[in-house]
Each structure stands twice: as structure tokens, then as C-alpha cells.
Design goal:
Blueprint: H1 3-23, H2 26-30, E1 33-40, E2 46-48, H3 50-62, E3 69-81, E4 84-94, E5 107-116, E6 119-129, H4 135-144
Parallel strand pairs: 1-6
Antiparallel strand pairs: 1-2, 3-4, 4-5, 5-6
Length: 146
Amino acid sequence: MTQKQAETQISALFDRLFAAWSAGDAKAFAGCFTENADYVTFFGQHLKGREEVESSHRQLFDGVLKGTQMQGNISAIRFLNDQTAIVHCIGNTKKRQQKNYSKNRESINTNVVILQDGEWKITAFHNCRIKNFNFIVRWLMNRSSK
């Protein structure tokens, strides 16, 4: 497989991930991950394995995240070898009642994806909300650098 083909397949993996979220389909969402995946949420919760990813997201999709939609795009793919890549992706969700995606809900995630049985899957995922430093943090940082 060429690098371009791999990039296309990895992009399709993330398109499936976003579509599964938007459909509220926890099984399809978890299906984008390996059986033994590590998934760290932006709250710092560490889910271990596809079953925990599915169970956790089923609760979210049936509860607080019911009806949310997700969009995202890959910002970088770095291949470590022919079967492993690090993928950075910026994603965003919107609630049912929102018309547009809010910039302050953007997150960046770091993913390790592997080629498993001819299909790319996420084996490690770490998500973090994108935040700008407020005035006080910027002031403290400037003081400490002097």
C-alpha cells in the first residue's frame, strides 16, 4: 500500500468515527478502535478496550450527548512504519439546539493508528480541549521568564 492510499484509508476511518458519533451509534464508534485500545478523554478518564469505549459512549449518546453532532479534520499524519501512524485531529461537537459549531468546543486529539487485518484502527487516543491562556496565566508566564 502506498502512503497516499494509507492516508486515504485513515481519513475514511476518521470520517466513520465522526459519522458514528453524529448518529449516536456507540457500537460503530467503538468499531473504529482496536479490541485493546487505550482511550483517554479530555476529562482524563482512561478507558481500556473497545468494550469500555462502546459502553461509555452508549451512556453519553443516550444521556448528556444525545443528539450531538461531530465534525473534525486531520491536521497531521506521521507514519512510523508501514503499519503504524500518529494522527492529530481537531474535532468539534455541537448540541442539538445549536445551529453552528462553537470554536470554544474544539479539541485536539493524538491517535496511534495501526493496520490490523488490512484495516486501519485506532489503538491509542488522547483528547484535550483547546484553550487559550487567559490574562492571568499569560502574566504569570511572562513574569517567570524574566
